[in-house]
Design a protein that fits this description.
five-stranded antiparallel sheet, six-stranded antiparallel sheet, mainly beta, Jelly Rolls, about 50% strand, about 150 residues
């Protein structure tokens, strides 16, 4: 497995230069490193911020599972979407409201067919809320299918 978490991960993360705002590091409550977040007061409604994970060395014709923690805290704070590079049009994962402020786990299966996926993009779209944040943390890539819960 490959640890792509932000504090000590080995992965290549890039801010998108063509979006409306950047994701920023935020300290974890327990002081153990940091996660990436978009606070609710950044930007205007419908603005987008994209954080891209560059994937190299993925073997063709194999399966991977991308597992990540996410938090959508606050009223109408916005949407979090995940896109795979070879399927730019539609998100492979999307969430728009948290039932509470808790961290949850997202999983995405990445199949390397004839076309390989060379990046994963986490996109935050601003809502109308003014408090809270959208956060992403503990991004891990493992070989094989996603485990059942």
């Amino acid at each position: 497995s490959v640890d792509c978490s932000f504090s000590r991960g080995v992965c290549d993360w890039k801010q998108d230069a063509d979006d409306d705002f950047d994701w920023n590091p935020a300290d974890r409550e327990r002081g153990d490193g940091y996660y990436m977040a978009v606070p609710a007061f950044v930007g205007h409604k419908k603005d987008m911020g994209r954080l891209k994970l560059l994937l190299t060395d993925l073997k063709p014709k194999s399966s991977y599972c991308l597992i990540f923690s996410y938090r959508i805290a606050g009223e109408k704070v916005g949407k979090l979407r995940v896109f795979l590079a070879n399927k730019k049009t539609a998100p492979v994962w999307e969430e728009s409201k948290g039932k509470d402020e808790k961290w949850r786990t997202g999983k995405i299966e990445i199949f390397q067919g004839a076309e390989t996926t060379n990046s994963v993009t986490f996109e935050s779209e601003r809502g109308k809320g003014k408090t809270g944040e959208i956060g992403v943390d503990n991004v891990i890539l493992i070989s094989g299918l996603c485990p059942e819960d």
